[in-house]
Amino acid sequence: MQRLTSAPYSFLWLDLQGRETPAGVNVDLKEHSPLNVTAGWESILEGLGRLRLETVELPEYLPKQRWFAGKSRGIKSIRIADWIPLNLPLNAPSDASQSALALVEVEFDTGPPDLYFLPLAMSFGDAENELQRTAPNAIIAPVLSQRGAGLLCDGAFDDQTCALLFSLIENASRINSRQGSLRGIRGKAFLDLRAPAEATLQVRRSSAEQSNTSILFGDRFILKLFRRQEPGLNPDTEIGQYLTEKTKFDRIPPFAGSIEVDGLAAIDGKLASLAMLQGLVANEGDGWKWSLEELDRYYATCAPLPFPENLSGELQGPLELSDNPPTQVARDHLGLYLEAGATLGRRTAELHLALAAPTDDPAFAPEALTDVDLQAQLAGIRQHASSVLDVLKERLSHLPDEVVEVAASLLSRRRQILDHFGPLNGDFQRTQRIRIHGDYHLGQVLRAKTDFVILDFEGEPARPLAVRRSKQCPLKDVAGMLRSFGYAAYAGLMNYPARHPEDVTRLEPWAQLWERSAAAEFLHAYREAAQGADFLPPRDVDFRKLLNVFLLDKALYEVLYELNSRPAWVRIPLMGIMSLVP
Question: What is the pLDDT of residues 400-422, one digit of tens each?
Fold first, then answer.
């Protein structure tokens, strides 16, 4: 996700001699004198060393990180809310540790503060040189210890710190921090995944993360660090453990353990998830990348061909297409992808069925989705839709020329769009709300041979944790994946004509055929596998109404995202809305 540039800091820095440095002055890390850490972590996480970290080093360091979500707001102050040294073994003296875990609270000029999980490490000698070469953005400050000159850095880039985090889980250790306690939880699948226990697990880092950081241990485990912290268990940990240990659904990376913290005032004294360990799944890449590769071949094959005359009228939508077998044209040209779409639809239904199974765990027990619940949700969605359309109107003159006409046409349909979120008929039949994925799209599944593995159950990262942990209508997940097929089709179309600009007009109906045929197969397989489930509206009219609501809501969410990050891409969700509101 593209991040915005941070606003200037609104406070004064203290330089190394205690003099005030005006806000906004750029301080080069190379010009800083080393932090003296000869007395261990106390030297820099308490007293004057802490003051320098909070007012000089961290204000420079945090906005450079991909996982820092506050780049669009001005930083008012930074505070180390709590910290704890990590030792190997874990009960070794704290002054012998080269690793520590810190929770850092950031206050902004506007809005609520954020809390971040920041493992810390000190690197010396060869490790210092390697860090400067491979991960310069992980460096926080120069340090001076009894071992000589070195660097204070993000512990995720230090092998020993990573090994300590793994050890916390492996040994189910519990240690006390300044305010609360930290504990490792070993999942039931850990020992099977770890065997043989004496095998060496090489530490590697994944470059694919943004809001989190992933560390790989050999070909067996992946440790995800949850950087931004909120009170409450992370739904990725919560759902992963539940599915692994309480259900038979196995199309997820198996839960192997977690690290939790509790008792901190910064998280209201509640449990919070710092990290999750999972089994590493062999795969051929995520569903988004695989889909774009398939689309590139599809467009290359279809570009020389005239679009079939019998299909050149208005193509039916996925819901209508899902009632019948795919057309011969779709079978001829999508081939393997139709089968993949159907497989993904079945796996999605199986996921929802597992999450809807009866249980005495209140966090997962299905609840009634009543007409009152839905009316309240529709009112909120309608309000959000109205605000998105206001933003689109405000930015119309700044859009690329090829997008302005589509955006203006959509704005002329404002009333029709908002009417989609009107109250349901009074005879809507009660269904269930359950725990769902919450941010479901092709980038959240892995292609594994001819099947799929579903991952990343955190929900939409911009939403509060309480919302991401809430029970919802599973058609929200279905709508997310259907929109993802549309995104893939048009992203592939934008990529292909970049090399073959003469083909763009001729390929657009082929893009529609791909999107709607793939979505129809997904939808047909999903409904077939979930048939009769209490979480699905029993009447077809209610199913269609709710699905269209969630499709439109998702497309409007995409419009706002693209307006803020990739204006040239806003045409994709705009076209999606136009297909839903003709």
Answer: 888 899 999 999 999 999 998 88
